[in-house]
Amino acid sequence: MTYKYESAIGSHVGMVRSNNQDSGFAGVRLFFVADGMGGHAGGDVASALTTKHVAEIDTSPFETASEAAAALEDQLLSANRKLSDTAAERPELAGLGTTFTGFFTIKDQLGVAHIGDSRLYRFRDGKLRQLTSDHTFVQRLVDSGQITEEEAKTHPRRSVLMRVLGNVDTEPNVDTEVIDPLPGDIYLLCSDGLCGYVDEKVIAADIADTGDLQSGVDILIDRALENGAPDNVTVALVRVAEVPAAEVDNATGPQSTAALPKARFVGSAANGKSDLETTNTARARIMSRRRPKRKPPVIAESQFEPRVDEYLAELIAETKRQNWRRRIFWILGSVFGALVILGIILLGYRWTQTQYFVGADEDSVVIYQGVRQELGPIKLYSVTEDTDIPLTSLGAYERRQVERTLTASSLPAAREIVTRIGSSE
Question: Cα–Cα distance between 391 and 422 in angstroms, integer?
Fold first, then answer.
C-alpha cells in the first residue's frame, strides 16, 4: 500500500513577542516544527539554523522509516554541534537552543524524531491523540504521579525543559519511533504557542471541520491569537491519503512528488535567520533595538536545565513544599469557614433563647423558652415554667390559642399571657 501526504504550514509571531523564534518546514517527505529559546539574541537563530540543516535531507532516498528516523537523529545531533560552535564563536548567543518535532514519510510509515516540548498529534476517527511526550520538568512530575495534568498547566516550572538542542553541556537524547498511519489520518505538528493556550477539544473540533488544510492551519493560529497568543505559534497539518493503483503504476517511484508543493519554510527559517557567515546580525539587532514604549506582559520564557538528580530533587522538594503550603492554606481556610458557620449558628441559637411562647405540654399550660422550630432531632425550645393550669379548665377559644402557641417578647410578657388566660377559667 502506498500513501500520499498533503500538507500545510503557517507561523505567527503572536500578540506579545517582538520577533518570531519559531521555525517550521513542510517539504516533500519531511515535516517539522522547531521552537527556539534563548531570548532575542539566540532563539530565532537556533530554530532557523536547525531547520535549514535538517531540511537538507528532505528528498533523501531512505528505504525504511526506521532508517529515516535514524537519519533525522543524526542530522539533529549534527545541528546541535553547529549550535554549540555558533555560540562559542558569538558570545551574545550563549544559551541558544531549540526544540524539534517532526517526521519523515516513507511509503506507508512515518519516521519520527522529537526533542523538547513541541508536539505531534494524530487525528483519527474524530479523536485527537498526543503521540509525543514533552521533555519538561512538569511532565516528569505528571508521569511520576506527583501532580495532575491540570496542575501542570499552571505549575511555576512548566517552562523548564529537560532536553533541547543547543548550547548545553549534555549530549542531546532524541526520541525516535516509527508510526503506522492510516488513510484519512491528519497529523498536527505544533509549537507550544498552540497547545499551551488552546484546549485540545477545540483543536480537535477545528481539525474535524477541516477541508482545505491551509485554512485549517490558519484557523488554529487564529485560535491562539484569540487567546492572547503570548508566545509564537507554529502549526503544520499533514493529511494521509491512499494512492490509487493507477497512480502508483504511472509514478516514477514509490512516492511520486510531481503533484506535491515545493518545500516551504516558515518563521525565522523563512527570514534567513540562520545566515551568520558574513555579518554579526544578532549583535547588531541587539544593539540597535529601540526601547518599547510600553512594557509588554510578562510571559514565561522556556528554560533549559540538565537532567541531573540534584536539580530534579530540588525542584521536586520545592513542588512538595508548594503542595504542602496549599494543603495548609486549604485546611486553615476550611477551619476558618467552619468557625464562621459555627459562630453564626451559636449567635442564632442565642437569639432564639431570648424568645418565649406559651403553649401546651400534654394536658397543661406551660411557658417555653426559644422558638417553635426543630432542626432534625434538635428542638430550638424547652419548657422553662409549668403553670399547672389544666387545659381542660380553659374555654374553647383560649384552649385553641394555647395549642397554637402565643408568642411573647420576654419571660414577664409570657407570664402576663398566662395570667390573662388563667383569669378566664
Answer: 10
Terminal Cα distance for the chain, rounded: 108
Backbone angles phi, psi at 237, to 5 degrees: -120, 135
Whether residue 154 has pLDDT greater than 90:
no
> In this predicted structure, what is the pLDDT of residue 35?
96
* Contact indicator for 119, 190 with CB cutoff of 8 Å: yes
C-alpha cell at 52: 535549514
Q: Would you state the cell numbers that stand for residue 340, as one nine-digit string?
A: 464562621
In which order are the strands placed within the sheet that holds 119-124?
A: 3-12, 233-242, 186-190, 119-124, 127-130
pLDDT in tens, 245-254: 776 655 544 4
State the Rg of the chain over Cα.
Answer: 37
Q: Is residue 175 classed as helix, strand or coil in its secondary structure?
A: strand
Prediction pTM value: 0.68
In tens, the pLDDT along 26-65 reads 999 999 999 998 765 688 999 999 999 999 999 999 999 9
Q: Is 191 exposed, middle or buried (0-12, 13-18, 19+ CB in 10 A)?
A: buried
Cα separation, 328 vs 87, whole angstroms: 46
